[in-house]
Fold this protein.
Amino acid sequence: MKRCFLSLMLAAAVLLPVAGTAADAPEKRRDQLLDNLPNWLNAEPFGPEYAAALKRGDRAEALRLVAGYYRRKPENPYLAGLAQKGYDAERARRAVRGEVTVVNVPYAFPDGRIDFRFDATAARPPQNHEWLWQLNRMWFWNDMAADYYRKKDEACARAFNRQVRDWILQVPAPAADDNGDRPGSAWRSIEAGIRLGKPWPLAFEVFRNSPEVPDETLLLMVASMHQQARHLMRHGSATRPNRFMGNWIAMEMSGVYAFASFFPEFREAAAMRREAMNIITDALRRQLLPDGWQNELSPDYHAVVFHNNTTVWHIARQYGRLGELPQDFLPLLEKAAEAYLAMAAPGLTQPRTNDCYTLRTKSVLQPAAQLFPHRQDFRWAATGRAEGTPPAGGTASRYLPWGGFAVMRSDWGPEAAYLCFDVGPLGRAHEHQDKLNINLYKGSEELIFDDGGGQYDRSPHYFHARSGAGHNTLLVDGLAQFRREPKTAEAPVEAGWISNERFDYAAADYRDGFGPEEAKFAVHRREVLFAKPDFFCVADTVNSRDGRAHDYELLFQLDTLKLKPVDELPGAVISDFGRNYDILIVPLYPEGLEVSRVSGQKEPRLAGWYAGRNDRNLYPATTLSMTARRRKEFRFATLLFPLKSGGAKPQVTRLEDGRCRVVFNGRSVTFDPGQLRNGVSAR
């Protein structure tokens, strides 16, 4: 199959325009695309008049017939369905005026005409190359198309016609040996895949019958989409080292699959479709770990891979081609949905681990519930607990041993206590230096946060948000953890996982380096105990590996500037979020600890900042620091207690035998901070 497609590519290569040169004027690009278009098409769909026009050399008539064919083509139910879904009407109106927001940075083009070669961040450092790249994903065309579908406002059609022609004629395709993968290029493979997956075919479907979109524009669009698909087959992730291991390949190949399905009139459409399906399926098999988690270990990119594969399934169903999909295609997607549900926080969002902003779990579970109607747990999550049943199992907690996430929750209810403990591998492409990090929620409120990464702009915050110093981890001599491997688990991670009605427990080590030189001068072991349903105890043991004394600094990140000391508990602080819940943080071994907090610090290192991903602005937060100085070994034990805002605090007592007693709401719980694995006793 691959050889068949490649042979088509080579046989037709002579017809490719030489693009991207200084002499490549818009008029020349237009003529090349239009002149070459019939060479790529099967004659049969366009009828005998088309074949006769070609035979007598009347290209103009042939192209007129092609345009007429596409105007008369029956409505595409899949694309029409997309046009009928919810959209942002204001965003559509703004795009008509040449106003766009990309990676949360707005820009109004002075003359209302979008320049797809322009980077609005270039004059406002730090420059973020994602702005120009993502401008060329044309997400706003989805809104324009949906708006036109409903209102038939020809001003919208005129704006679209101008924008698509500007792009085709002003943004040259790379030369045949150029992958276009560089800053300032509109032809990075991920953008081409995204364009073909929805914005371009949707816009074509909706605007093809507008009197404001002439035949020439339709023909240029069809020719350009074909050109983009061929670019992806030549230069997409499937042609690169480690080609199957990232989310890009899913976006690229779902785009190719969509194009080849929607435009079967092209000679190589069938070969393109089959190869794209084979590539995306092979990538799915390789990327999904045995527990269902995608190997980049980010809820965001897990969802990206899931959605692009479900797109392939839906298109295959529309065209009666489900039989072309391999037998394990749906089971793999079901496993991926199970993993997403297993990670869900009580507000039915996903924890922000690695590069990730706050995502609603239903973004995956709604389509999963449609694909797998027998799964009542998927339906439960998709409907926000209104229908279906919560996941079954002995407890509500879950351990994903390949992704390396120990998820502790009191129950599946909306006000549950929840902690996600990262014990896994580094992850691929979107990894953070955050092994042993924790995310803690009570209900829908994040009490100890993970930033999620900020923008991809290579700014100081970019590096801070991905560093151990930006997480709930530990520094040694002021240096954060630094590891290069493993990217992906080669075996399930052993975390000593225990989950029962009374408590959850997990533990893991960090044995890699600290600082840019990856100095291995200490071992950090973290244990987490969840005394259900009320509180967590986190024990951090650090041992010197080089025989020297070091400074050990334990960090907790809180999205507030308001922390108050708790007089009755030495070293303890409580937050004042001004929400439903606060977090009480109690060091159980306060002797010799320096407890401090910083907010909005820039020197000597960034500390006390918060930014959601793709947010250009930083917001002061608080980094709580507990430091043990000049020790060869030390054991931190920290009580993390979610509390109703303004409610009663627990009584915390250290007993003579080393155990700790916590009394709260008429319940007494005893545990040993030095032996968390033994669990709790309660009365």
